[in-house]
Structures are given as C-alpha cells and as structure tokens.
UniProtKB/TrEMBL annotation:
Residues 47-394 form the Aminotransferase class I/classII large domain. InterPro entries: Acyl_CoA_acyltransferase, Aminotransferase_I/II_large, AON_synthase_class-II, PyrdxlP-dep_Trfase, PyrdxlP-dep_Trfase_major, PyrdxlP-dep_Trfase_small. It comes from Flavobacterium xanthum. It comes from the Bacteria. This is 7-keto-8-aminopelargonate synthetase.
Length: 814
C-alpha cells in the first residue's frame, strides 16, 4: 500500500520564520556606517542593543581591530590551505596562548559547529553510547547524526533531568563502554546552567559516564582567564570531561577551541578530525584578533571586565525583582528570557520595543516550544545603567498593552511556562462578551436537532455516532482507550450557532505520524513498557474520527471572536487537565485560520490526506467504471472485478459473539501490520458496541471453499461501516487475513464492496478516511489535503524521535 505523506519539519519552520519576517522582527539588516556595540540602527531607527552575544564587548576593542588590520596587511585576507598541510604564521602563537589559559593544549577549529563535527565522531567509539540533553545546541545534535550511521545508540533526556539521565545510564551500561552525556554549559535561550556539580557526582557513581559540554555561551565572562562557566565550577578538566569553547561571541574574534586532557585523543582528532582535515582554516585577521583577545584574557583586565558585566547583570536583576515581568529563569548569566507564550504577543512587544528604541531578539519555534515563545534579552558591557533601567520601564509599560491587544494575560503566560503566580496583583479579566457559550461533557446533553445540521453527515461524529463513541471509549479498563469528551457550542445572542466542535482527552503515541521505521523501534520498547513515549493529548475530534470536526459560520461578523473564545476555552481545559499537547484537526488550508492559530501559539503540520468518494451518480458497474481514469479503469478490470467471484459477500447488522471474535482478530492482523498511522489497538468492546448500535453494519468476505474442502467458508476480510444520517457511508476500520490478502486482493475488494453498498443504500458520499490514498484514488476517491495545528509543553518527544535511526521501510496501510 502507498505510504502516507508525513509532515515536513522544514516546511513548518519555514512558514513560522516567514511569518516572523513578515511581522518585521526577523531577518533584519543593520544599517550603521559604524558599529559601537551599544546601539544599532534598523530601518532608520537607532536602538539600544540588547541582542548581542558578545557579552564583554570585545568585538569593538581597538586592540583586536588593530591586530586584525595588521594581519591582513601582512598575510592577506585568507590563508587558503588546509591546516593538515600548514597553518598560517599566527596559529602557533594563538595555540600557545590558549594553552596558557587552560593549562592544556587546544584544538582550534573554524567554528564550534565544525568543531563538533570534527570532535564527536572521533571521540565517540563504536562501542560507546550517547545521551543528549534535549536543549543541547543544534550543532551538537547534528554532529551526533553521524554516530547513528555507525549503529551507536543516541538517546535523549528531558532538559537537565538527572533522574532520567541516571535511568538512561543504567539502560546503556551493559552494552556500552563509555556513555557520553552532551549538554550546554550555559543554555542560549533561557540562560540557565548545566547542573555540573550533580553531573560530576553522577560520574563518580557511574565511571562509564563522560561529559561533553558546549560552553560557547559561558566563555570569557565567566571563569579564571575567561575559560568559561564549566571550568568556573570544575576548576580543572577531569579525564572524563570535554569542553568546546568559542573564540567568537564574547571572546570577540572568530573560531572555536576544543579542550580535553586526553593527549592521545587530541592528536587523533588533530590528525583526522573530518572538517579539520578538509576545511579551510581561520583567516589571519581572525587569528590575530583572537591572539589580542587571549592577551586580555591572560591579564588582570579580564577580571575587571567580568566584574563590570556582573554589576550590570545584578542591576538588571534588581530592577526585574520589583516588577511582575515574567522572566522565566532567574539567574546571574547575561541571558534573560521574557515569556509571552503566544507568538503574536512576542511580535507586538518586539515591534513596540523597537519603536521605543530597544533591540531585542524574538525567541520562536523551533528554538523554543511554540507556546513557550518569548523575548531573549542579552546584556553586555556596552549597555549602560540608564538604558538598562529604561528597558525595564519600557517592558513594564508595553507588555500590558501587547497582552491586551493580543487577548493574552500574565496568567496565561505563567500557565504556559508552568510558573507559580506571583504576589503581584492579579489581572482582572473581563467576562463581557456578545457570545453565548455552551459547554457539555456528553453529547446526550446537546439537542440532536442542533448538533446534526452543524456537524452531521461526515465520519462517525453525528449525534448518534458520538453516542456510540462515548459508550465505547469511556469507563474503559485500559488507560489508552479511556477518553473524556468535551463539547463546545458558541452562539450569538440571537442563538445563531457560530462555532461547534468536540474534543477528547486521552493518550496518544508520540510517533503516531512519524516515519514507520521510528515506530518499529519504539514498538520494540513498548513490548516491555506499553505506554513508552506516549502523551496526554487534548484533541479536537478523536482518534476514531476524521473530517471537519469544527463547524465555523465564517460569514458571521463574530466568527473570529467566536474562534478566539473557543481557543481560550480549549487552552483553559488543556491546563486544567495538565495535558501534554493540544491538537486542532482536521482543517482544510485556510489563510485566515492559519493566521489566527499561528498567532495564538500553534504550529501547522500536514495530516494524512483524506479520501472521499463524491460521485455515486451511476446505475451499474459499467457506468461506475466509466467514471474512472483510463489507467484506473484498467486496474478495476484486472485487479478488482475478477476476484469478486472468489467470495461470498455478506452484509450483517449484528454479529454473534463468535463472529465478533473472528473479525476482531482480522482487525488486529491489520493493526499489527500497519504502522503508517500508529495508534493503540482498540479493545474488543469497541466492536461489540458496534453490534448493539443500529447505525453500524459489517461487510464480510467469505472465501468460497473448493469442492474438495470439507470446512465451511472462511471469513478473510471485514469492513466495519457506519451509516451517517442516510447521507454518508463510512468504512471506519478494516480487518484481513494476510494468508489470503495478496492472492485474492482482499483490500481492494473490500473498498469496492463499500462503494457498491453505499450506492445500494442511496448514500450521497463515502468517507474513506486516510491512508492508502493511492488505492482509494484508483477507485474514484478524491484526495483532500488536511492540516492540524498543535501546541506542546515542550519539544522533547519530537527531538527524541529525531535521534532515532530513520530507515526507509514501508508497511501496508489500510
């Protein structure tokens, strides 16, 4: 069967960045004729610069500039040759000075990204294992992709979760020699630190544990000789620790430096460390600037510079402590994060801060979870106390305005980031509205004559279908198939419906739409731990249904207001349930909805295509065949029609207990063979409930026995079909005996029999659901692209699945 189309991560990020660019907060250009580090000019506006990562301001130091200019005059703009052959005349001096700083000979790389690419694949052996902090810098994660090609296990833990780390160490200890934990010294978004003391204690408990730190954001402003945050804690480098530092950012020059105490490993990396062998070396100007900066780092001046920055950080923290501004992590690093939760609030606040004369960085997905959007503020020695104070005053003034303009609040921000409420006065939220909200937890509490005209005639979520779903999926003994139902109906004051939908709360597998190769790996783990990598999800619709789960009266003047009210109610419920993910599905592409959902903190993903048969205006099989393309007509004549005679086709409205067990096993055959859409296996009561419901029927294929056979005809295929309001026929689930599936084309025959049955009952369309779109299209289905909008508490599951090997294997879909 054809593999379903999965979401393209690059397309998602591209759309988010394009939106931020359109709002004028990303991909900007500085217009200054001269840069001084304190201010920056954008679109004719001079602003105080609170977005740099040059925390000590050394990039503007005259000594570094003069050294770089002199090096160009002496040696040219570059030294175009690999360092494996010969280094430019300044390299030896730089390496000697960095060695004096650290007390260990360094390896100099073009930048930290190439440094990780050189070091990690060389240092990590085939018999080792790797554990990533899920917030470790992208460049580290990217370098570890090379390890997976060698069969090296690459695991991931939640950010700085020491219990989870210890659990992973125990899992890997019996099959790995060394176990590498990779983390940032200082994390670039929230400015928080790696728990180094705890990690060192853990390494004493587990001698296999080795630590690899990307400390580029901890360099220069911290530590003796500016050697970084990690060394400021460790004091010296143990044998089981490696550090990647930087010569750019706060160091003020360019390049990166790798430090470890294993001399033999250093030489191995230097001899053949990928990019070190084949990439260009640092330009003479960069090396000269780094030498000048190293001289400062080796002098008492570095302590003076660090102290000046520390005083400004303390001053900023003092000012912040007197406000209710939602700073997410309180620390003494130069990186601060002001949470806004929703992208639209970030855009508005950044725009207003720009207007007031302050440049800050928007922090958006995928650098942070989409609902953890915010503003990254960085301090440097260039910033003066008067503009630091002015920035705090501006944020205090502008944040409430941005919140009001975007229907946001401090309470919502604190909920999104899991923060406790402060002692500051709580906001007063108005309940005045021109809309009427009806919320229920059972479809039985909603008038059938109101629900069905809005959401009937599709899938299995008309009023009767929802009664069935509530009976089948509530009060279940298995957690994965026990759902809560939540219904929303929003009207105007004249009782005209504007929005209607339903949500379910239950467990989803995180890999539901991931590549099948990933699901194959995870299912092996789930044999011992059935709920491994699953999440509590509040989802529009439910896993049993597909289609337009949300009715929106788009012509109503209050439509957008009603949508915003729905989102507010859904998010309130999301936090109340403490769900891990909130999902809005399955929508057609809509520019207006895309804008609303994105601005409220949702990312768009592609869902599997929906398949609908709309043309049932034919009277016989010849006429049906003529509705198909010439290629599909040939397929129908050769692969479908000839096999019909192999079966006795029986349609039943009820099944006996034995028959229910038989068809349930056929369903489980398909479920176990199909990971394209990886959901939980439904329990048997879901099928026995069908037998008790008047809107369900079963198309059964009995393989005709041969004359010499004594056994009864064998049931080898089944379709579980829902009849929606005499309008839409819905083949919801399928079951097959794979011993006969290919020989007798059972899957195609079942699709065909569903079409015949829908015509016989005079239905207007068939909702064929998603997956196997190629097969359904050959029988006349129209393929309709669908999208969903999601927000999650964090990106952990997505990034964890990204560490799994992604072999291109395909499996049958239904």
């Amino acid at each position: 069967m054809a593999k379903i189309k999965h979401n393209n991560f690059i397309d998602t990020v591209d759309e988010i960045f394009a939106g931020a660019k359109k709002e004028g907060v990303l991909h900007l250009y500085a217009e200054d004729e001269y840069l001084n580090g304190r201010t920056i000019q954008i679109k004719g506006k001079e602003m105080f610069h609170f977005g740099t990562t040059g925390y000590l301001g050394l990039e503007q130091d005259s000594r570094l500039k003069e050294a770089a200019i002199e090096a160009i005059q002496k040696y040219g703009t570059q030294f175009p040759l690999s360092k494996s052959y010969i280094s430019n005349p300044l390299y030896a001096a730089l390496e000697a000075k960095i060695e004096t700083m650290y007390g260990i000979p360094p390896i100099i790389t073009k930048n930290s990204t190439l440094g990780h690419m050189a070091v990690i694949p060389t240092a990590v052996r085939d018999e080792d294992g790797v554990i990533l902090d899920h917030q470790v810098h992208w460049s580290v994660q990217n370098a570890c992709q090379l390890l997976k090609l060698r069969g090296i296990p690459v695991e991931m833990i939640r950010h700085s979760n020491m219990d989870m780390l210890e659990h992973k160490i125990k899992q890997l200890s019996s099959k790995c020699n060394k176990i590498w934990y990779m983390a940032d010294g200082v994390y670039s978004m929230f400015g928080d630190y790696a728990p180094i003391a705890e990690l060192m204690e853990l390494s004493k408990k587990y001698p296999q544990l080795h630590l690899y730190f990307d400390d580029v954001h901890g360099m220069s402003w911290k530590g003796k000789n500016g050697t970084g945050y990690v060394l400021s804690v460790l004091k010296e480098i143990p044998e089981n620790v490696m550090i990647m530092g930087t010569l750019s950012k706060t160091f003020g020059a360019s390049g990166a430096t790798f430090i470890c105490s294993d001399e033999r490993l250093r030489e191995k990396i230097k001899n053949f460390g990928g990019p070190l062998t084949f990439s260009a070396q640092l330009e003479p100007a960069s090396v000269a600037a780094a030498i000048a900066s190293a001289d400062i780092h080796l002098s008492p001046e570095i302590t003076i510079l660090q102290t000046e920055l520390e005083e400004k950080i303390d001053y900023f923290n003092e000012l912040l402590s007197k406000t209710s501004l939602p700073i997410i992590v309180q620390n003494n690093s130069p990186v601060f994060f002001l949470g806004t939760a929703m992208p639209i609030t970030t855009y508005k606040l950044v725009q207003n801060l720009f207007h007031e004369g302050f440049f800050v960085n928007p922090a958006i997905y995928p650098a942070v979870p989409v609902k953890n959007t915010g503003i990254r503020i960085t301090l440097s020695r260039h910033n003066q106390k008067e503009e630091i104070k002015a920035l705090v005053e501006a944020m205090e003034k502008l944040l409430p305005l941005a919140l009001a303009e975007t229907a946001n609040s401090l309470h919502k921000i604190r909920s999104a980031f899991g923060l406790n409420e402060t002692n500051h006065q709580q906001e007063k939220e108005t309940n005045e509205s021109s809309l009427l909200l009806n919320y229920e937890t059972s479809i039985k509490n909603i008038d059938k004559n109101i629900w069905d005209p809005l959401l009937g005639k599709q899938s299995t979520f008309d009023w009767e279908g929802l009664c069935y779903l509530e009976n089948a999926f509530t009060n279940s003994d298995c957690a994965e198939n026990n759902w809560d139902f939540h219904y929303y109906l929003i009207k105007d004051k004249n009782n005209i419906p504007i929005v209607a939908t339903f949500f379910t709360h239950g467990l989803w597998k995180d890999d539901m739409l991931a590549a099948e190769s990933i699901s194959l790996q995870l299912e092996e783990t789930r044999k011992q731990n059935p709920l491994y990598l699953t999440s509590k999800v509040l989802s529009m619709g439910c896993l049993f249904t597909e289609g337009n789960h949300c009715f929106i009266n788009k012509t109503h003047p209050l439509a957008e207001e009603a949508i915003m009210l729905l989102l507010e109610q859904a998010e309130t419920l999301y936090h109340k349930l403490n769900a891990d993910m909130l999902v809005l599905r399955d929508f057609d592409e809509d520019i207006q909805l895309n804008r609303i959902f994105h601005n409220q903190g949702y990312i768009k993903i592609n869902m599997p295509d929906s398949c609908v048969v709309k043309n049932l205006e034919w009277d016989n099989m010849n006429e049906f065949s003529n509705t198909l393309s010439s290629r599909s007509k040939r397929h129908f004549a050769e692969e479908v029609l000839p096999f019909e005679q192999a079966f006795d086709i029986v349609i039943k409205k009820e099944l006996t207990a034995i028959e229910t067990q038989q068809v349930y096993q056929l369903y489980k055959n398909v479920k176990g063979n199909n990971l394209a859409i990886n959901t939980f296996t439904y329990p048997e009561n879901v099928f026995s409930e069908m037998t008790n419901h008047p809107s369900w029927e079963f198309i059964l294929l009995y393989l005709k026995k041969k004359e010499e056979e004594q056994d009864e005809n064998r049931v080898v295929g089944v379709l579980f079909c829902y009849k929606n309001m005499g309008h839409t026929y819905v083949p919801s689930l399928i079951g097959m005996d794979y011993a006969y599936a290919r020989e007798f084309q059972i899957y195609r025959q079942l699709l065909y029999q569903a079409i015949k049955r829908a015509k016989e009952l005079a239905f207007k369309k068939i909702d064929f659901g998603f997956s196997a779109t190629f097969e359904k299209k050959k029988l006349g289905a129209t393929i309709i692209p669908k999208v969903a909008y999601i927000q999650a508490r964090d990106n952990f599951s997505m990034e964890l699945m990204g560490t799994l090997q992604n072999e291109d294997k395909t499996h049958s879909g239904t």
